[in-house]
Amino acid sequence: MDRLRVFFAFAALIALSAFVTSHQLRREVSHRHAALAASREASEARERLSAIFQAVSEATKDAVIVFDPDGRVLTANGLAHRLARRAGVALEGSSFSRGRWVYSADRRTPLLLSRDAISDLARRPGVRARIAWLGERDQVAVSYSAHPIAHDGESLGYVLIAHDVTDLVEAIEVRDRFLDSVSHELRTPLTVLMGETELAQMEDVSAKVASRLERVDQAAQRLFATVEHLLSAYRTAVRALPQTTSVALTVGDVVEREAALARERDVRVRFADHGVGTASVDARSLRAILDELLRNAVLYSPPGATVSIDTRRDQDRPVVEITDGGAGMSETERRRAFDRFYRTDFAREHAIPGVGLGLSIAQSLAEGNDVSIELEPAPEGGTRARVCLPPALRPGEEAA
């Protein structure tokens, strides 16, 4: 009897264990089916998002390449593949090799466009779009930028976007050639007129004739300056394209251009370069901006004064500071200095040449190049113009 009781108890235990195990298996199978269903839904959602992204990226006029955090290519649209082939970039699968035919804005200097360079560019959100020329012979110009991709603070990778700007660049080049030609045609007769007037003033003439010659010379000088300013104003109509520009060489060129005026005004120009390197800015525009600021500094400084030009860095941005030896400007004058045709009382009283367009043109050029110009009182008196330039390419981004 005891054995029978033990047998039934053991059988009940086995049945209970089988029931519990079966219940657990059914629950695990149910959870697994739910997980598989969720996984299928997530996979289908990813496929739908991928299809939407692919359709949008193919419809855009931009080349788009998406990288994961390790620099592997996740996806690229058709235009990106076509530009990659032109640049000699191996864009197959998840690979991305440095291009064989990628050049900077001068079309000659090889440009390092590697995954590391693109990743570094994506981590610098304040950097403007770059210009690169692609191709060995039949080159095209592209404006490219890189942007990080993140969600809830987690890095998901980065995206490279490039846009064909060949027509724009060529239009700017045609415009500049036209302006150079027009400038030459306008300057030549004025230069002859001023030269002949100067020679006539050196001759022994009556006071009445000398007075007339002086008025002719002053009028020719004003007309020459007006032509220069109007041509410069026309150049600002099209946004300039950034390029890698040496700050020291550009400042040195401007100092040389204004050397004659400085000698004539008996003003000493001192230039101290602290090795700021390069900036990402249109060289012609930067030269025009600094030329106008230095000319103003010389004109507003009394004989025997010194105009100082210093270069320094403000974080990663190159800065050029031009300090004159003049009487300084009031807060209102500094605020209105960039208005078109604005001239201070000091300029009118001392007959300083100009029509009030120079600083306005410099400001327009600055705005088109991500450059800021600030006028502030100098510590020793006078006025300091502070020109803050866009960050330069970091060492190694561009090959020499």
From TrEMBL:
Entry annotated with the keyword Hydrolase: no
Keyword Disulfide bond: no
GO MF entry, a single one: phosphorelay sensor kinase activity
CC annotations in GO: plasma membrane
EC code(s) of this entry: 2.7.13.3
Gene3D superfamilies referenced in this protein's UniProt entry, alphabetically: 1.10.287.130, Histidine kinase-like ATPase, C-terminal domain, PAS domain
Main subcellular localisation: membrane
Cellular localization per UniProt: Cell membrane
GO biological process: cellular response to phosphate starvation
Reactions catalysed: ATP + protein L-histidine = ADP + protein N-phospho-L-histidine
Ranges for domain Histidine kinase: 181-393
Secretion signal, residue range per the UniProt entry: none
The entry's keywords: Kinase, Phosphoprotein, Transferase, Two-component regulatory system
Protein name: Sensor-like histidine kinase SenX3
Protein species of origin: Microbacterium schleiferi
